[in-house]
Amino acid sequence: MSLDDIKADIKALVAEKSCGPILIRLSWHDAGVYSTGKLTGGCPNAAMRFTDAGEGTFGANAGLPTVALDLLKPITDKYVAAGTISNADLWTLAANVAIESMGGPAIPTRFGRTDAASSAESVESQVGRLPDGDKGTDHLCEIFHPKGFTDKDIVALSGAHTVGGCHADRSGFDGKWTEDHLTFSNSYFTEMLDKEYADETTAQGCPQKAHKATGTIMLISDLALLDAPYRETVELYAKDQEAFFKDFTAAWVKLQENGCEGLRDTL
Ligand code: HEM
Questions:
Q1: What are the residue boundaries of the Plant heme peroxidase family profile domain, all occurrences included (predicted)?
Q2: φ, ψ for residue 48 (rounded to 5)?
Q3: What are the CA-CA distances from residue 24 to residues 92, 101, 113 (Å)?
Q4: How buried is 121 (Cβ within 10 angstroms: 0-12 exposed, 13-18 middle, 19+ buried)?
Q5: How far is the CA of 47 from the centre of ligand 1 (A)?
Q6: Per-residue model confidence as pLDDT tens digits over 184-238
Q7: Distance from the alpha carbon of residue 2 to the mean position of ligand 1, in angstroms
Q8: Mutate to test the pocket of ligand 1, among 17, 28, 101 (most ligand atoms within 8 A of CB)
Q9: Nearest CA to 49 among 123, 124, 115, 93?
Q10: Which domains does the chain have, with CATH numbers?
């Protein structure tokens, strides 16, 4: 069983189930708990597999241990059970195959992440590690700077919201960011700049911004990117998709490798 076999199976899954966006969110939340400073640890280790405690129970991860892992189960059963790849590496690879399958950049994947053996290897809490959608620029800085990201990186990474959407039964927010939510492009930035958004509260009581004519949404944290110090990068990526893809790739690989040691280029 080779790397090409795993990639082909992920590509087929993404095409069949249109599940690229949730696979990207799975990798982001596995790796995104990493922090330095007051908080430490949190390298990607697939701790969300355990739902007795820890990351598998975090509200911010709603839908990942259930929907995302159910979707991946046939591939997990085939390759992780056989010892070909770890769960944490599979989640990383799945996101990267999804991004490219949806028209985004080809992302290099390195391997060697070790899986958590139980929920005891989870980080203690999502607080200060994963971002809230109803907060603004200060919050984005507080969450992303201790992970080693610049303000430009924050804009590039947020551009992943060009695909997928919010689900009322998961986050309480509701709707898709872009009109072509299964294509990985710079449309998150072009739409954000072109559209007028109005305040809206979802049935779950969550505040968000809606574009009435097309039904797309933005979170408060998304539209915070229209303020300093982020706005000029939004304008750059709206004009230049290649610049977005290049900066996204660099920030995303850093995210997926944060806290990992001894990664290798081959499986
Ligand atoms: C900047 C702060 C961020 C906030 C506040 C945020 C918040 C959210 C929320 C509330 C959802 C909806 C979850 C649901 O209801 O299903 C979501 C989905 C998503 N997020 Fe983010 N996110 C952020 C950054 C990121 C980053 C850095 C990435 C990846 C690089 C990312 C990728 C995604 C994707 C692809 C989805 C769609 C999932 C789906 O369609 O099932 N987000 N995000």
A1: 11-262
A2: -65, -10
A3: 8, 12, 17
A4: middle
A5: 19
A6: 999 999 999 999 999 999 999 999 999 999 999 999 999 999 999 999 999 999 9
A7: 31
A8: 28
A9: 115
A10: 3-128+252-257 (1.10.520.10), 137-248 (1.10.420.10)
